[in-house]
Please model this.
Amino acid sequence: MIFEDFEKVIEIENGKIKGVYKKGEKKGEYIFEKGKILPSFCDSHTHLINEGLSKIRYNLRDKKSKEEVYEFLKEISKYEKKIIAYDFDESKWEKKEFPLKEEIDKISKDIPIILRRICGHFAVCNSKALEILRDVNGIDFEKGWAYEELPLNINYYFPPEKEEIRKAFLEGQKIALSLGITEVHEIVGLKNFENIIEFDEKDFLIRINLYVVIKNFEDINEFERIKEKFIQKEFLKFKGLKIFSDGSIGARTAFLKRPYSDFKKERGKIFIKEEELKNILKYAEKNGYQVLIHAIGDGAIEFVLKIFNSLISQNDLRHRIEHFELINEKIIKMAKKSNIYISMQPNFVREWQHKNGLYYKRLGEKRWKRMNLFKRIIDENLNLSFGSDCMPLGPLYGIEGAINHPLKEQRIDFETASKLYTENPRFFSFEEKRRGKILRGFDADLIVIDEKNNLIATIFNGKILYATPLLDQK
Model:
């Protein structure tokens, strides 16, 4: 198979790039006169099972008010025995208020109803759901608001059937392919770790680099029990562990050095004790596991870097901080010292980092300007890659956010942004000698985009697995 764009020709054989030639040196089977062939995208932070569940279950992303949400719930409550609905985003509503238990109770007190916020760190429950969740931490039972524990582990407390998980995983991968993604860093909890390793080879449509969430050091025993059953597959590789140090800006659980601008009594909090984080890092170093540490607020990032710098000098395992959103000069210096790897989400910028948007309201003028400093991080030669956290999934959507960053001095060009979504994520997961560049001998994982950066085709393992009507075979 031979692909040709406006400047080069790529020959593929047995899923590998056999040769790369100048225009005219070989005749292409697939010719894109106005198209450009790039390495395919690798999303460095996904939850494809949750992405799939949010599509085969109920999704609230398109609802424009609480009232619209409630009308939708009234309709589906007529025939459902429980309702778990995903991705409401009150920051996009005219009245930027969280739903309340008493409001959802008017819809039904007889079936459990849970609405999970788009950030995944906050949910709202009705009284029937709270009866089931009475022993769960982090719940305001008066308002029905649940922070962190329930929303992050909703499938533990209301477990889907294994077949539903499998269907959701397949759906998430199909969505990824339609967006030019052929490889992900997939983050799952212990239960889905056990589920996913039991899936058949045919259930893996793209390359999965797997990271497993552990809440504390006590989870290590359960992780090791499951890990013993893990058998590496062609498109499934285990890579490491994920832990949380704080929450999200939207839920006001990201740990800040100073209180939130719109709620002066709240700074968020640290979710893990210092000694516990040290023990997990030591365990990972001993066993050769990469660690991903969620840290969004400046307080949390400083907390993580302080511990990291006290324990690790070389960072040969390429340990990472996920999100790294609110930073300052001290944090930049600490990050340079640590050689930490940083995975960020440019789609967050497009969704919430605009004047009078969520970040502006939560943090105020000064701190809003310290969020998601892509250009500064690149200029400091820090290790950076891009992912989505599925909010929403879509590299080209995120890249547009990086190109048109609301802070002009933080904008980067398309070439730089696409490299952060192609080459760099492969380096983060030790796959840089196989993928992320168009070189002879590399895996033939490619995309074709047009002059307006629209996706034309997704090529995985040498085969076209997704194509738009713009695909032109000659």
Summary: The CA atoms of residues 137 and 183 lie 35 Å apart. The first strand starts at residue 2 and ends at 4.
